[in-house]
């Protein structure tokens, strides 16, 4: 292992084992499989990752380490740990983004709009009037479920394996926002490292 | 206590203490405060209740017994129990409604669209093409965040205490559905009792 990859790993405690988001390798320490340096927090059962194209600043995902499609596939321990991590990561992103609320959502299965067949919980920090220019508070859901929130598409665009899932799920009309571009790996790496440091400041309880 | 109220209580294990959804009393055993017979499942820390106006069949809510507005206000034990209950109730409503997926969503705070300042997790069973007539899979979010999904409005209409919260939160345009009427208390009581029986069939793990 090169010193460069060791350095990358140091930002993510306990991330020695490869971490998959559905079919996509997302751990930062391996570079030859087109994976993204997205993971910023891990527990033995759960991890949290940044997005290529967050629909609002601080939009992150929390997933179980084990690749299963449905919440009902999780063990009780995995379920508890997933949502304790959601609570802790949510508190952190709300704090660092100066937000006052969070949208927390799981599209649990294809017919609920799930794009990658691996349980993932969206956490989106919210502020007063943050989406007034997009139609109001609840425009977040159009964004989450339009092309902007398609985390599968994001991975496919980033050069990972393809999936026909996006074609089979029904989409809500996309809110147009041509000004926002997908970020580069360096941006995501910088955010993931910043979030990893911020997680260390969060109380465990 | 009359035999009638004892009979009502029998459908809800462990619901001897009054249960509040925000300012609204929702336990079935008291009738003089305009409360609704909505609670169908309780644990020492969590309860589940049916809706007056579900946005799809089987749409239910899961809340902590303790009245707090934010997920971050919950203890670790409350957080675990809440989402273990979400998993268990979700499995049940998916089964009895012949669904294939679930939308699971928490509007965590006013600026995320929360209508009643008490943590509540929406669980909505989904099927293929169930919302094709409303615009597709993700029309659920318009419904959740329009007037149809305003659980505060539902309680206010049912004769409970008023709140200015609905006026302060920004709304996404309402999907119009004049054909659906709020249900009567007897309908909700019958559903709550049916769901209470079905919960007893769910494995605990």
TrEMBL record, chains A, B:
**Sequence segments annotated as region (Disordered):** 158-188
Q: What class of enzyme is it?
A: hydrolase
Location of motif Histidine triad motif in this chain is 118-122
**Hey, where's the site called Important for induction of apoptosis on this chain?**
141
Q: Which cofactor does it need?
A: Mn(2+)
Sorted alphabetically, which Pfam families does this protein's record hold?
HIT
This protein is called Bis(5'-adenosyl)-triphosphatase
Keyword annotations from UniProtKB, A to Z: Hydrolase, Nucleotide-binding
* Molecular function via GO: bis(5'-adenosyl)-triphosphatase activity; nucleotide binding
Listed under catalytic activity are: P(1),P(3)-bis(5'-adenosyl) triphosphate + H2O = AMP + ADP + 2 H(+)
The positions annotated for binding substrate are 51, 107, 113-116, 122
Give the residues annotated as active site.
120
Q: Which InterPro entries match?
A: Bis(5'-adenosyl)-TPase_reg, FHIT, HIT-like, HIT-like_sf
Compositional bias annotation for Basic and acidic residues = 164-188
User: EC annotation?
Assistant: 3.6.1.29
Residue span(s) of domain HIT: 26-133
**From what organism does this protein derive?**
Penicillium cosmopolitanum
Give the PROSITE patterns listed for this entry: HIT_2 (PS51084)
Q: Record keywords: Nucleotide-binding included?
A: yes
